[in-house]
Amino acid sequence: MLANSSIQSVQTGFETLNLINPIRKVLREEKYALPTPIQEQAIPHLVKGRDLLGCAQTGTGKTAAFALPILQWLEQNQEVVGPKGVRSLILAPTRELAVQIGESFRVYGRHLRIKQAVIYGGVRPALQIRALSRGVDVLVATPGRLLDLLNQRQLRLDKVGVLVLDEADRMLDMGFLPDIKKICSAIPSSRQTMLFSATLPSEIVKLSRNFLSDPVKVTVNPPSSTVDKIEQKVLFVDREKKSDLLESILGEDQSLYRVLIFTRTKHGADRVAKRLIKIKISTEAIHGNKSQPARLKALDKFRSGRVRVLVATDIASRGLDVDGITHVINYDLPKETESYVHRIGRTARAGMEGVALSFCDEGEKTYLRRIEAEIGRPLDVDREHPFHDESIASKKSGARKPNSKSFSNGKSRGRGSRGRSAARSEGQNKSFSFSRNRSPGKPVNGKKNIRNKRVS
């Protein structure tokens, strides 16, 4: 995503970022006038070949912040990598995000001779193997499928000059850490590395130091801030009445015309979707048990407006970039506070406004308090809905009293201290290290590094 003229930024324009003509031409054709803050601050460092740790709230253009410098480096450092070779590698935690990043590279690089491929699990690998057979300039991949093909010797990573970890907090989660370790061991240590995410817990920042060399850190918003244009509300409701509340909201308010609903479980997503379909609300569901073709078909229906509601688990909280999502509804509050930031960031994208509604039953009060501590502000309480449960709203588990001033109109914007989530397992692996041993400015792949000379 890039900024359009509706997003306020420093009035410098892309012409000051030392981008080459073919890229500037695309930006003009796409009618992008101003870079977002993360693009404006990150791109000048990246075109110089610096490692970078970038943090910005979701929906502010992180993909373009790394895609444009990579495309420029590929164009200015022509190299034939040979069969199965890869020049730049972007790792993403979900299939949906990988597809979206691949599409961004296709758009931004359409005036360049760039070969690219996107690989992910859930589909037969034959077409992916064929795409890799002659070598590619850009490879976007999920770690599992990448390792499968690497172990099958269907690709080589010995020519990778640039590595990107998108959604770095999740990529470096313990679930991905062993895969990332194996992948990095197959890539030259003289690479340029970039990490981007909307949230960067302190444990992840510490871990990232093991494989970033003299990095620039760019943080354009507080690490867990939420987009200011999102109206956030919490609706206290008995768990057994959540379905009734959802039906009431969708049935009475037609302004909810493109709605993304999050549940904690796959079964919950299917159950909510089936109930909505039963009352004639066009709905699709996506989660990890769905095949990749089914997930892509559901997303296409939602994107095109053929269905009004998409019900999903947290696989859709990152990387789902659909224009015009009017409302995000947390049918179940997430256990991980960072997931809340990513979930609601699916609305109010590209300068638009949006609404995030969170259903909270008695058992979820603890999750709510953690979320409020994480984002540094209380959520507005909606007491006007027909299923409001004051006993839950006022129950003391760190809850505020109903008439507490801190809930008045949600106007408190003070940034509280970040809440500490339950101990993250990835932060416990203190002995793990990615060995880089690269001095600043060392040429990539042992060749003369002209990236630092291309900026006039």
Task: Describe the structure in your own words.
This protein is an alpha/beta fold and 456 residues long. 32% of the residues lie in helices and 15% in strands. The protein has helices at 21-29, 37-46, 62-76, 95-108, 126-132, 143-151, 168-171, 177-185, 202-208, 242-252, 266-278, 292-304, 337-344, 365-375, 390-394; strands at 52-55, 86-91, 116-119, 136-141, 162-166, 192-197, 216-219, 230-236, 259-262, 283-286, 309-312, 327-330, 354-360, 380-381. Strand 3, helix 5 (126-132) and strand 4 form a beta-alpha-beta unit. Helix 13 packs across helix 14 (365-375). The chain is globular and about 65 Å long. The chain starts with 20 loop residues before the first helix and ends in a 62-residue tail after the last helix.
CATH architecture field of the largest domain: 3-Layer(aba) Sandwich
Counting structural domains, the number is 2
The end-to-end distance, rounded to whole angstroms, is 27 Å
As laid out across the biggest beta sheet, the strand order is: 3-4-2-5-6-1-7
Largest sheet: 7 strands, parallel
Which labels suit this protein?
456 residues; disordered N terminus; seven-stranded parallel beta sheet; alpha/beta; 2 domains; disordered C terminus
Concise account of the structure shown:
With 456 residues, the chain is an alpha/beta fold. It has 2 domains: 14-223 and 429-453, P-loop containing nucleotide triphosphate hydrolases (Rossmann fold, 3-Layer(aba) Sandwich), CATH 3.40.50; 230-410, Rossmann fold.
